[in-house]
Design a protein that fits this description.
The complex is a heterodimer of chains A (372) and B (322).
Chain A: H1 2-13, H2 26-41, H3 60-72, H4 80-94, H5 97-108, E1 114-117, E2 133-137, E3 140-148, E4 158-164, E5 175-181, E6 187-191, E7 202-211, E8 216-217, H6 223-233, H7 240-251, H8 260-288, H9 294-319, H10 336-343, H11 353-365
Parallel strand pairs in A: 1-4
Antiparallel strand pairs in A: 2-3, 3-7, 4-5, 5-8, 6-7
Helix pairs in contact in A: 1-3, 3-7, 4-5, 4-6, 7-8, 7-9, 8-9, 9-10, 9-11
Chain B: H1 7-22, H2 27-34, H3 37-49, H4 61-76, H5 83-87, E1 100-103, E2 109-111, E3 120-123, E4 129-137, E5 146-155, H6 163-192, E6 194-195, E7 198-199, H7 204-232, H8 238-263, H9 273-286, H10 291-305
Parallel strand pairs in B: 1-3
Antiparallel strand pairs in B: 2-5, 3-4, 4-5, 6-7
Helix pairs in contact in B: 1-4, 4-6, 6-7, 6-8, 6-9, 7-8, 8-9, 8-10
Classes of the chains: A alpha+beta (372), B alpha+beta (322).
Protein name (chain A): Acyl-CoA dehydrogenase family protein
Keywords (chain A): FAD, Flavoprotein, Oxidoreductase
Domain Acyl-CoA dehydrogenase/oxidase N-terminal (chain A): 2-110
Chain lengths: 372, 322
């Protein structure tokens, strides 16, 4: 059984109190490299990829198990999840033969790190307003502008960059995707000090960065469609409930649950975790049947992201002031402060909770909300 | 778990829906409140005619699903007949027992007790069984078919093994139907009601409420479907059924509060179906125990049995005495 196999593998490879993949620290990077190598050796790193690209051809349910176990164990693939989950699959769909040959081996072996260059200071949720410019100069494209909130930018060798190649009435037209080497002259990465920890958030500046046509992914000016493919692969979202499930399991028997109020919140959180998982499974099932709607995907996300904050608050309350500082000797419960800090981003990252609610409401008002 | 309900069950649910529509939908609940005999004289025969009162929720997959979906359709119009109480009696015991009520500790009133012959009550905590004697009807806005009753302890055991589990499961389908009805009313109003020159569904605050309402509705639907499957494969323990009840109560609270807020004063009027759905749903939400009491029961049960999950919670996660 895949879940048992993954847990055994992770138990062997991860330090007992592993919680932090967002880091430049050599020991953290060594763990990520070791886990990726082991997963690659056992054919698990590209489990979800099609067989023709050297993957395991796993069905959606096996992919779900893999994602659950990785997230529950604090994503030990580190920055690799991005390349594996959507950069690789999008390259398979719209990349040229040369692009696939150049990039897929690095992703499938867990050696290439990618970052996503979408958000800008003036284009967050409203991605269509992005301004970073790509202009033609002879045989080259010249990139000028800024990206922000870019995770892993300081570690990445490649950036999956959305840039504006023309301005049209429809702001979604005229966007082009570029695959940009992060060691290109003119790129500057500035880490943003945040409560999330190092490498989580960065600014990336592009100052007359030159790339060739081989860097263009898909058609020039049709980048919005490519971004749609990215979102398709990320639609159901992170299985946050899996980590929450693990946190609740670890909390079992904690003296902080002696308080009746805490015990009540604890059992409610258990129920909410089960419900979030079921809503996510509904999305997986409908996706498998080719009937996944944006609303069903957003409902799964809504349940999951709110759960993340509910469980983090509960864990912090139960552990009390002792939990304010990391305590490496206590396993997961020694890192409740990390769980709480990270949960703050749940309703912001990858589409804010407001956007998810609007998607759900719009579909409901259009009478299209009973797709299940 | 297969997500799709059997085709035959879905077709049967449509039949039930048509029959309830011919009774006037929610209007039947209004009428029965004014004219209590409407329940036995009109509603019951119509259910009997389509075999709804003979369904076996423990039967094969198609019949069990048909029972769950029939209850959901009945809940959608807060049908003035205790269908859940009837179907929760195992078929082998139905000749001797007309219905089963769930209670918790002392109980002086039950809904629809006056129309259920030879009914019994089962205590949710210890499964003790009581005979039910009706003293008199006790009609109240939030307990429209309430009756004062006297319970006499008849001891443990048959003939109603598993009745409380099935009651808890079917209650969730009943409430799920009612909440779906309430949600539809709120959505229609948000589309049609215009303020400041536009449908109120254009306003962010209304959309926010709609999203929360839909999430609460679907959360219950998914957990009810999953728990139905757990019960069928013999894996539903008391904690699973209490978890379903807790979600049912939380979903009801969210859906009803947001539906009322979207409908405004209109939804408070007796001529509007939302007011009737809300009032008539209350007995199911409060008997045998409401949200706080259900939470306590669930905590007790998880302490004893643990809770199944991706990372299963072992028994005694909450230490004894708290």
């Amino acid at each position: 059984m895949l879940r048992i196999r993954l847990r055994a593998l992770l138990a062997e490879e991860l330090p007992p109190d592993w919680v932090a993949p967002f880091s430049l620290a050599p020991d953290v990077r060594a763990v990520v490299a070791r886990v990726c190598r082991r997963l690659a050796d056992e054919g698990l790193l590209t489990l979800s990829w099609p067989v023709e690209y050297g993957g395991g051809g796993a069905d959606l349910w096996q992919q779900t198990v893999l994602r659950e176990e990785m997230w529950a164990h604090f994503e030990p693939r580190g920055p690799q999840y991005m390349g594996l989950n959507w950069v690789g699959p999008v390259l398979m769909e719209v990349g040229t033969a040369e692009q696939r040959a150049r990039h897929l081996p690095g992703i499938s072996s867990g050696t290439a790190v990618w970052c996503q260059g979408f958000s800008e200071p003036e284009a967050g949720t409203d991605l269509g307003s992005l301004k970073l410019a790509a202009r033609r100069d002879g045989e080259a494209w010249v990139l000028d502008g800024q990206k922000i909130w870019t995770s892993y930018a300081g570690l990445a060798q490649w950036c999956f960059l959305a840039a504006r190649t023309s301005r049209t009435e429809n702001k979604h037209d005229g966007i082009t995707i570029f695959l940009v080497p992060m060691d290109s002259p003119g790129i500057t990465v500035v880490p943003i000090d945040s409560m999330m920890g190092e490498q989580h958030l960065n600014e990336v500046f592009f100052d007359s960065v030159r790339v060739g046509d081989e860097a263009v992914l898909g058609e020039v000016g049709r980048g919005w469609d490519v971004m749609g493919l990215v979102l398709k692969h990320e639609r159901i979202g992170i299985p946050r409930y899996a980590r929450d499930d693990r946190v609740l399991c670890e909390l079992a028997g904690h003296e902080g649950l002696d308080e009746p109020a805490a015990a009540a919140e604890y059992v409610r959180a258990l129920v909410h975790t089960r419900v979030a998982r079921l809503l996510s499974y509904r999305a997986v099932a409908l996706s498998e049947a080719g009937r996944l709607t944006q609303q069903v995907a957003s409902l799964a996300r809504l349940a999951s992201i709110q759960l993340d904050q509910e469980v983090a608050e509960l864990a912090a309350d139960v552990c009390g002031a002792e939990g304010l500082a990391p305590d490496p000797g206590r396993g997961l419960l020694g890192h409740v402060e990390d769980v709480l800090r990270y949960s703050r981003s749940a309703t912001i990252a990858s589409g804010t909770i407001e956007v998810q609610r609007l998607v759900v409401a719009r579909a409901a008002l259009e009478g299209a909300d009973r797709a299940s | 778990m297969r997500r799709e309900w059997p085709k035959s069950a879905r077709a049967y649910a449509e039949t039930v829906s048509d029959v309830l529509g011919s009774l006037g939908g929610v209007e039947a609940a209004r009428r029965a409140e004014v004219e209590p005999t409407h329940r036995a004289e009109t509603v019951r025969p119509r259910l009997d005619a389509i075999g709804a009162l003979a369904l076996d929720p423990w039967g094969d997959e198609e019949e069990s699903a048909a029972a769950a979906l029939a209850v959901r359709e009945a809940g959608r119009v807060v049908l003035p007949w205790p269908l859940v109480h009837v179907l929760a009696v195992p078929p082998s015991a139905r000749a001797d027992c007309g219905g089963v009520h769930l209670v918790l500790g002392e109980c002086t009133a039950l809904d629809h007790a006056d129309v259920l012959p030879d009914a019994i009550a089962v205590d949710l905590r210890d499964q003790r069984v009581f005979s039910v004697t009706v003293e008199r009807r006790r009609q109240a806005p939030l307990d429209p078919f309430g009756c004062e009753v006297r319970l006499v302890d008849t001891g443990l055991g048959p003939p109603v093994t598993d009745a409380s589990a099935m009651h808890l499961l079917l209650d969730a389908f009943w409430v799920g139907g009612a909440l779906a009805g309430a949600a539809d009313l709120a959505l229609r109003h948000a589309r049609e009601r215009r303020q400041f020159g536009v449908p109120i569904g254009r306003f962010g605050e209304i959309r926010w409420r709609i999203a929360d309402l839909v999430l609460a509705r679907d959360s219950l639907d998914e957990l009810a479907r999953y728990t139905w499957w757990l019960l069928r494969v013999g894996r539903a323990g008391p904690a699973d059924l209490l978890a379903l009840r807790l979600q049912m109560l939380e979903s009801a609270r969210t859906v009803l509060a947001n539906a009322h807020q979207i409908l405004g004063a209109m939804g408070l009027c007796e001529e509007h179906d939302l007011a009737v759905i809300d009032r008539h749903l209350q007995p199911t939400l409060r008997r045998p125990v409401g949200r706080l009491g259900t939470t306590t029961l669930l905590a007790d049960r998880i302490r004893r049995d643990g809770f199944d999950a991706l990372f299963p919670v072992p028994p005694s996660p909450i230490r004894p005495g708290c």
